[in-house]
Each structure stands twice: as structure tokens, then as C-alpha cells.
From TrEMBL:
This is Polymerase nucleotidyl transferase domain-containing protein. InterPro entries: NT_sf (IPR043519). It comes from the Bacteria. SUPFAM superfamilies: Nucleotidyltransferase.
Amino acid sequence: MNMPSTLPRTHAIFLERVRDAVEADDRLSALLIGGSYIHGGLDEHSDLDFVIVVNGENYGEVMSSRMDFARALPDFITAFTGEHVGEPRLLICLYGPPLLHVDLKFVLAADLDQSIERRAVLFAREPAAMETRMLAAEVNWPNLPSEWFEARAWIWLHYAATKFARGELYEAISMLGFFREQVLGPLLYRRAGLNQRGVRRLEAMGLDAQNRLAATVARHDASSVKEAIEASIAIYLDLRSDDPSLVATKAMPALLRDFIEQAGSRNRAEHQ
């Protein structure tokens, strides 16, 4: 594991607070940590991604009172649950000052047998058993196949184009950001032989060395939005070519480019 040799002071203090709170609560059996703590790159702007292992007989009680656990930690500001990312076990919290984003996920020991990352054990009532369980866990990052991207890319880009055609530029700009996060960023990671991670740390890792994604960031201006959609098409086609076995969607991108040109012509005519 690529664990940090040193932690920013704020992170180190908070980690100790969470570890002490877990150790003091007999309903909890272990504290794990993932994210940049194990992947590398943890700095003063990083989140802390904790996983708290709950005894089976106490799970219902802990889940119903987990907000109390978060509030009891010093410098609590606010928190909400993670249904929006499909993870109701998760509390997304803010502490400070200084401000610190903290994720607290409450799980059963059996939930650790399959994971997207091999987390570090910060505390366990039975350390040897927990380390053995973590080493035996099936770890699979949720990388997506080329077909997943191809099935969605043209629908999402067409959606952006329809908003451009209607003059709903904020909607189009929002969809282009979503497209970068869901398609272009992951494919740039794939090109580098890395696990797909949206657009996180693309600049720091040099994954877009030619700064091509900048062309997909539009201003609130019709011509800028049109150019950003066209740039998104071009970059996707280039990244898609990394998998020559992919069956391309029929009539794309020709139909979409025709649609964009027609919409642009109408927009110009309306403003003359």
C-alpha cells in the first residue's frame, strides 16, 4: 500500500480522534481508511475516507444513530447521507476550522470481502483476524468496458447539442462537464493504463499533457458551446480508438455533426 509517511497536521489530529472514538465504542470492531491515504497524493486538500466496521448485533442501532457519532467528533459542522451516490451507509461530513471533508462509512465485516480498494487498518479489536480478512478480500476497481462508453457517449452528446440548439446554454455546459467526468476522464486514465477515476488529478498526473480537455470547457456563449461539443466529439473518437475491437454506433458522429451545424446555422440566422 502507498501509505503516506507523514500526514498534514489537521488530518493527523482528526485521524486520531476518529480512532479514539471507534476504540471507545464497544459496538464498533475496526477502523479502516482508503482513498488518497492508500493511493498516494494525500495533501492538505484531501478528504479522509474512513470505513467503520460495526458488530452485527449492533448494526441497526449504529445505523440509526450514526449522525450522533459524527456530531460527537470535535469541530463538527454538518453532514448528510450518501444516497445520491447509491451509498446510504455513508455519511459525508464537514469539520473545522480548518475545514476538512470526512467520509464515514459504516459496514459489517462481511462487507469487506469484496471491495474496490485494499484499505489500511487503523484499529481493530482483533488485528490479526482483520488483516487476514483484508488480505483475502476480492478487490476490483469498477472499470467500465468500451461498450459502456459507446452506448452512452452519443446520447449524452446529443443531449448537449439539443440544449445548445434551444439556447439553454447552462444546460449544455453542465452536460459537457458531466461528459468529461463520465467519459473523457475515465478514458484518459485507461489510455495511461490506470484505473478509471473521472477527471481527478488529471492535471497533476499529466494525463492530458496536450491540455485538450480545456477545449471542452465552454463559456456562456453559443459559439463557445458549439466548439466545446465538437471538441468533445473529437477527443472521444480519439480515445475510443484505443479499443479497435469496439463496434462503433451506426451513423455517428456524422448525424450529430449535421445536427450541430444545422442548429448553429439557425442560431446565427436568428441573431442577424
